Amino acid sequence: MASRISLTQYLVEKQREKGLIPAELRLLLEVVARACKRIGYAVSRGAIDGVLGEAGSSNVQGEVQKKLDVIANEALLEANEWGGNLAAMASEEMDHPYTIPHRYPKGEFLLLFDPLDGSSNIDVNVSIGTIFSVLRLPEGVKEPGEEHFLQPGTKQVAAGYAVYGPSTLLVLTVGDGVACFTLDKEIGSWWLTVERMQVPRQTREFAINASNARHWQPPVKRYVDELLAGRAGPRGTDFNMRWVASMVADVHRILCRGGIFMYPRDDREPGKPGKLRLLYEANPMSFLIEQAGGAATNGHQRIMEIVPTKLHERVAVFLGSKDEVERVTSYHREVSR
Ligand code: AHM
Ligand code: MG
Predict the structure, then answer these.
(1) Mean pLDDT of 167-178
(2) 110, 120 contact by CB (below 8 A)
(3) Do 211 and 188 lie in a common domain?
(4) Counting CB atoms within 10 angstroms of each CB, which of 26, 50, 87, 107 has the fewest?
(5) Measuring from atom 15 of ligand 1, which residue has the nearest CA?
């Protein structure tokens, strides 16, 4: 049997050979990966364990929580609170950050997550996932508060996601490229299955929820109309469209074969800058995409350079193959000029 590289070995090598990550970060990532195994297991049990359907509660953004949203959130909190590597955690499903209970030692990292992304797909057996991001607690801070999470994405020291699909995958960056691991459910190990994911610069595939087309702003309309015009239009080629409605699944496809993912700001609720959350979704995905050679903007600026002003901040997202992200961003800039 060809020798395989496990997640542990991959991380130990990053720590030892390249000095890229401290031991505490390695341990933290292993715990996150373990929690993802647990979540993947709960997801796979579905109706057998009665975990489908609504939990009967809402989160801070007023969205109805599914039972599995709550289970996944708990799994991440429980797995990560005692390890001694974290100062606090923040989640899409919790109003405020979760500080590490006093009975456990505190570490220097902050963990942020969307415990179960793709809520509309939970009950219909379509791929969903967990997205996470790791920041460092600013130096000198003893008691972490909400304000310490408000760091731009460029400060992330690690980010990744798990996809609960036909295979359970973990896609990870510690700032040295993007690696993909596949869960071997019999043995319980994550095996390295793609060492360096690369997003092709060009693409002929795009992802957007087109049911919102009537609310789009002019630069997005212009860009998508040009794609839809196909060979006869200004782009002179036919484009294909895909929309899973699970960001993890859409981004994973783009990491595998290219494409552009868009969730723009639109005119439905003019005060709301997009649907997706900057800290739990846009930043970790932007870090991964950039590490794989792609680009990510909010139409005007690089997502990872946005300085957040609140924990649950939302943002417009254009990410994926560089040439396409640059094109749609330039259409926005033309309008603002
Ligand atoms: P969620 O975190 O509540 O699941 O919402 C985020 C999801 C993304 O995974 C996906 O890209 C998007 O919402 C789909 O939105 P829509 O249903 O409007 O197409
Ligand atoms: Mg989400």
Answers:
(1) 97
(2) no
(3) no
(4) 50
(5) 245
Q: Are 77 and 173 found together in one domain?
A: yes
Does residue 318 form part of some domain?
yes
Which atom of ligand 1 lies closest to the CA of 243?
19
> Which of 119 and 278 is assigned the larger pLDDT?
278
Return the residue whose CA atom lies nearest to atom 16 of ligand 1.
Answer: 245
Say yes or no: 139 and 114 in one domain: yes
Q: Which atom of ligand 1 is nearest to the CA of 63?
A: 3
Contact 211, 228 (CB under 8 A): no
| CA angle at 202 for the pair 196 and 206, rounded to the nearest 5° | 100
For residue 96, the enclosing domain spans: 7-194
Is the CB of residue 118 below 6 angstroms from any atom belonging to ligand 1? yes
Token pair of 243, please? Answer: 């929309």
- Can you give the pLDDT at residue 2? 66
Six-digit token pair at 124? 């219909």
303: domain CATH number is 3.40.190.80
pLDDT at residue 292 is higher than 60 = yes
Predicted confidence at residue 63, as pLDDT, reads 83
